[in-house]
């Protein structure tokens, strides 16, 4: 492409400091170095995690930063020794890397690559230098994706080629929200046909859990959210009932236990709060229930609960990006989408030009959107 080998000037949204919404800027994007790829982002969604960085509750972030981790685009150019993609390929950036070499990547039971931000910083490229500058200042990367920039750079561990015919304005959903929730149900919980499920939080991630529970054949799926405006979509996607904790004087876990006898077979927390994590655990069935934590509470949080909840046979586990090894899984998920085997499109509530990113954040904060997609 004509831009290959040159520094690119393009639009991006920069969070200059905690508490400030991403501001539209012109940034410079340097050339990709060895084992790096520069990508033209076509579409990117806004996830609550991006807002967590705005609010300073995501751990170990350096500011100014360009966030965005649900995106899809086209390879613009590649650095030396890149073999996994070529210019022109359609790709999805991976918010959870798969380096293919670390102990986790070599362990078939783990997707928690040791290059993820849980193990080391992803605020700069692996060689500890950045590719973004704005107004003469270095701007940091986020999760090696930074999809709120028209052009972005990522290492080979954080990118995967997808089907040439995939619609980029749709399949960005597989970069986080849909894969995270859907995988929590089918990979982590392994929901069984005829089972009962409760899903706490009916945002894009919780709704994707519902899609997964339904696909797995659950017979009863109870959505839990304080925002009743989320109920219609949850029911459209497979929830059989929806309840709001605000409608009951007793704790919500007691309501769920009464509704189901001994509690649900599978409960999921897709909010990222300590109190709802404990409520989800206490809602799961005595003797055999499984509770899956999907949301990540603010950094430094500690979970406290009565251990007899576990001694009496409940299992508590967590799910990171749906337990997928993303580089292996996403091409298949995208081809399932192309073959109409899964339908996350209903999660896209708003389509906006990239310049309206602030409106996208406002819709998320007001509880009016599920996923807003920003188009470059
Ligand atoms: N009780 C019930 N519902 C609640 C409560 C409450 N006390 N508080 C909020 N809710 C509801 C909101 O009304 C909303 O409908 C829903 O919970 C949350 O939805 P969103 O749209 O804000 O969030 P999502 O679906 O985009 O993301 C949720 C996550 C849990 C993934 C996110 O917040 C998170 O914890 N991210 C970090 C974990 C991670 O890394 N995940 C993968 C990459 S994002
Ligand atoms: Zn996300
Ligand atoms: Zn790895």
UniProtKB/TrEMBL annotation:
The keyword Oxidoreductase applies. Its cofactor is Zn(2+). Transmembrane segments: none annotated. The keyword Oxidoreductase applies. Pfam families: ADH_N, ADH_zinc_N. Gene3D superfamilies: Medium-chain alcohol dehydrogenases, catalytic domain, NAD(P)-binding Rossmann-like Domain. Residues 19-374 form the Enoyl reductase (ER) domain. GO terms for cellular component: cytosol. Keywords: Acetylation, Metal-binding, NAD, Oxidoreductase, Zinc. GO terms for molecular function: all-trans-retinol dehydrogenase (NAD+) activity; zinc ion binding. GO terms for biological process: retinoic acid metabolic process; retinol metabolic process. It comes from the Eukaryota. PANTHER family: ALCOHOL DEHYDROGENASE, ALCOHOL DEHYDROGENASE 6 (CLASS V). Belongs to the zinc-containing alcohol dehydrogenase family. This is Alcohol dehydrogenase 1-like. The gene is LOC129336611.
């Amino acid at each position: 492409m004509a831009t290959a080998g040159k520094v690119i000037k393009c639009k991006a949204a920069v969070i200059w400091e905690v508490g400030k919404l991403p501001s539209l800027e012109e940034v410079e994007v340097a050339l990709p170095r060895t084992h790096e790829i520069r990508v033209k982002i076509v579409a990117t969604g806004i996830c609550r995690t991006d807002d967590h960085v705005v609010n300073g509750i995501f751990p170990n972030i350096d500011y100014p930063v360009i966030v965005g981790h649900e995106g899809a685009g086209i390879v613009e150019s590649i650095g030396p020794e890149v073999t996994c993609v070529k210019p022109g390929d359609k790709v999805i950036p991976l918010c959870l890397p798969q380096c293919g070499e670390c102990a986790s990547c070599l362990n078939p039971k783990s997707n928690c690559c040791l290059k993820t931000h849980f193990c080391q910083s992803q605020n700069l490229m692996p060689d500890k230098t950045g590719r973004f500058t704005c107004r003469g200042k270095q701007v940091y990367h986020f999760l090696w994706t930074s999809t709120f920039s028209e052009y972005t750079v990522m290492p080979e561990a954080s990118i995967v080629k997808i089907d040439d015919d995939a619609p980029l304005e749709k399949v960005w959903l597989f970069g986080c929200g849909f894969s995270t929730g859907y995988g929590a149900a089918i990979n982590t919980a392994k929901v069984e046909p005829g089972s009962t499920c409760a899903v706490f939080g009916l945002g894009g991630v919780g709704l994707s859990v519902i899609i997964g529970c339904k696909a797995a054949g659950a017979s009863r799926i109870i959505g839990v959210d304080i925002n009743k405006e989320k109920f219609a979509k949850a029911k459209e996607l497979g929830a059989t009932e929806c309840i709001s904790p605000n409608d009951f004087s007793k704790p919500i876990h007691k309501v769920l236990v009464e509704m189901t006898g001994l509690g649900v077979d599978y409960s999921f927390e897709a909010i990222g709060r300590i109190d709802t994590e404990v409520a989800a655990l206490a809602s799961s069935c005595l003797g055999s229930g499984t509770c899956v934590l999907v949301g990540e509470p603010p950094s430094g949080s500690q979970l406290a609960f009565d251990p007899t909840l576990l001694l009496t046979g409940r299992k508590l586990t967590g799910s990171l990006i749906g337990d997928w090894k993303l580089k292996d899984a996403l091409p298949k998920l995208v081809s399932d989408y192309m073959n109409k085997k899964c339908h996350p499109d209903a999660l896209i509530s708003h389509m906006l030009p990239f310049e309206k990113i602030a409106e996208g954040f406002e819709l998320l904060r007001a509880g009016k959107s599920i996923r807003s997609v920003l188009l470059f």
